[in-house]
Amino acid sequence: MKRDILLIALLLAAPATLAGGEEDYQRLCAQCHGADGEPRMPGAANFNRQEGLRVSTLALQERIRRGNRGCPPFAGQLDDERILTLIQALRRMGR
C-alpha cells in the first residue's frame, strides 16, 4: 500500500519536475544555448540537435556543477535533483 502511494505521488510530481527543469533551462541556459536549444553564442552546444548531449548523464551533471568551457558552474544554484531534471529537459529538446 505504501509503495503504491509513493508511486502515485512520484507519477503526479513528474510533470511538475520536468517543468522545473525547463524553467531552470530558460533562466540559466537559454541566454547562450537559445530558448529552443539552438545556440545564440559561438561555441555553445546545440541541444536542439542533441550534439551537446552525446555524453553520459554523469558527465553532464559534472559539467553543469563545475562549468565547462564558456559555461559557468551552477553547483551553488542547483542541487543534484534539479540538475537531473534540467538534463531531462535538455534531452527532450531535440526529439
If you had to describe this structure to a student in words, what would you say it looks like?
The chain is mainly alpha-helical and 95 residues long. The protein has a single domain (2-93), classed as Cytochrome c-like domain (Cytochrome Bc1 Complex, Chain D, domain 2), CATH 1.10.760.10. The chain is built from four helices and no strands. It has helices at residues 2-28, 30-33, 57-66, 80-93. The longest helix has 27 residues, at 2-28. The protein is globular and about 55 Å long. The model has no long low-confidence stretch (mean pLDDT 84).
Give a summary of the structure in a few sentences:
This is Cytochrome c. The chain has helices spanning 2-28, 30-33, 57-66, 80-93.
Q: What characteristics describe this protein?
A:
Cytochrome Bc1 Complex, Chain D, domain 2, 95 residues, mainly alpha
The overall pLDDT, averaged over residues, is 84
| Number of discrete domains | 1
Give the biggest sheet.
Answer: none
CATH-wise, what's the superfamily?
Cytochrome c-like domain
CATH arch. level architecture: Orthogonal Bundle
Keywords: Heme, Iron, Metal-binding, Signal
Pfam family, one: Cytochrome_CBB3
Signal peptide: 1-19
Protein name: Cytochrome c
